[in-house]
Amino acid sequence: MAELHFNAFVMNTVSHIQHGLWRHPEAKQADFDDIDTWIELARTLEEGLFDAIFFADVVGLYGPLGGSYEVNAREGLQIPNHDPSALISALAVSTEHLGLAFTSSVLQAHPFEFARRVSTLDHVARGRVAWNIVTSTQENAARNFGHERLTEHDERYAWAEEYLEVVYKLWEGSWEDGALLKDRARGVFSDASRIHKINHVGPRYRVEGPHLPAPSPQRTPFLFQAGSSPAGRAFAARHAEAQFITPPSPEAAAGLIRETRDLARAAGRRGEDIKFFQGFSFVIGSTDEEARRKEEDLERFISVDGFLAHTNLGVSQDTGEPYPPETPLAEVRTNGGRSQIEWLRQRNPGREPTVGDLGALVARRHPRLVGTPERIADELQRWQEAGIDGVNLINWTLTPSYREFNEYLLPVLQKRGLAKREYGKGTLRARFFGHDRLPDRHPAARWRGAFSRPAAAPAPALAETV
Length: 466
Ligand SMILES: Cc1cc2nc3c(=O)[nH]c(=O)nc-3n(C[C@H](O)[C@H](O)[C@H](O)COP(=O)(O)O)c2cc1C
Known about the structure:
Blueprint lengths: L4 E7 L23 H13 L4 E5 L13 H6 L8 H11 L4 E7 L5 H14 L4 E6 L4 H6 L8 H21 L6 E4 L4 E3 L9 E2 L4 E2 L14 E5 L3 H10 L2 E4 L4 H17 L8 E10 L3 H12 L4 H8 L26 H10 L7 H8 L5 E4 L1 H14 L3 E5 L5 H16 L12 H6 L33
Parallel strand pairs: 1-2, 1-13, 2-3, 3-4, 4-9, 9-10, 10-11, 11-12, 11-13
Antiparallel strand pairs: 5-6, 7-8
The structure holds flavin mononucleotide.
């Protein structure tokens, strides 16, 4: 059996996914603003040989434009939230092996500034940084950065293509290997002839360069992506080294993985150039019965309001106010999520389901594995046979969810050869793929050497990268 990879899926906020759980007596989510919470978690994850801590992030509120954010504030629903990149700088010096993945939207940072920050972090972390590329889905986020409205869905991915072109040019093309000399005897720190301006001119960005940091151990950070619409999948196939997926069953996962790998091959990459991480939460017990009792206990804390506000389904798109939970679903008008409503209708043929029922359903949006460690290991094996390479472990509580993984599940997984027994050496990319830098077939690689060609030689056309 091949080993699975494990990431801890977290956010620098109170309530990330499992809304309401911050009230649990053992939960430390409410102290997310205390650095000790994260240092303790990061060290726990290293004890459990986790590959990476993966920070989600958003730069705005969930909900319709102009709507109330009373529920968001009450539930701690991703507000307050803090910048994950500042946090991973602290975690880089508190850990030795753990990969440090953070989300950043093309909306929130200019690519020149972002590329510089990431190179700096990858130096600090000695090559353990990963970037989850997102394009933002919130109207409020768009307004926070001066836009009238959220850019249209597929156009956001076109925006991301140009953003990547800029950062790839800076990370891969601006500095040649060997440009950094540190030659004390000759008094030459670096060789200007091997450091290049990139002179990027595109629809959204004009960036002269050169990149200010010298290349970091990975140059381009390890690249994650989440989002599985046709445009999202095509984008992942071109760029991602790992995709975060959330299909409801192994069969659905198999289809999604096969399609994305086919797309990657069509884009000149190999199918195995992308690792697929499935999101799961676990409830582990010494017997299945005990696990079910624990699940019931955890469910008592679940906030239906929180789940509904997170998905926009429980908020009226007309008034911006939450629907009362007893509202029949027939009265709910929404632009998205109709399939979830239909699914619930079919499950409750005897009566008209309500908004409250929907909340309970949404709370199970990510597959949940409940039972003894052996049962959970069986399930993971089934998912692995369907093609997943790793798990993004969604927590109920910081830090107990991860401690339980280490104590009960990890030994069983190790015994079956499903989890590693020690960390590999080197950068995060080397541990996933065996090399520090992106392979030549990745689109970032086309910028290597592109700016050192004589002026007469044609530079790669902008459009070729799209
Ligand atoms: C599992 C998962 C995790 C995501 N995490 C984030 C996140 O942390 N921040 C964010 O702005 N968007 C996040 N997204 C949104 C995606 O990046 C993407 O914008 C969204 O899914 C819409 O793209 P799609 O239509 O291609 O699926 C996430 C999506 C998924 C499925």
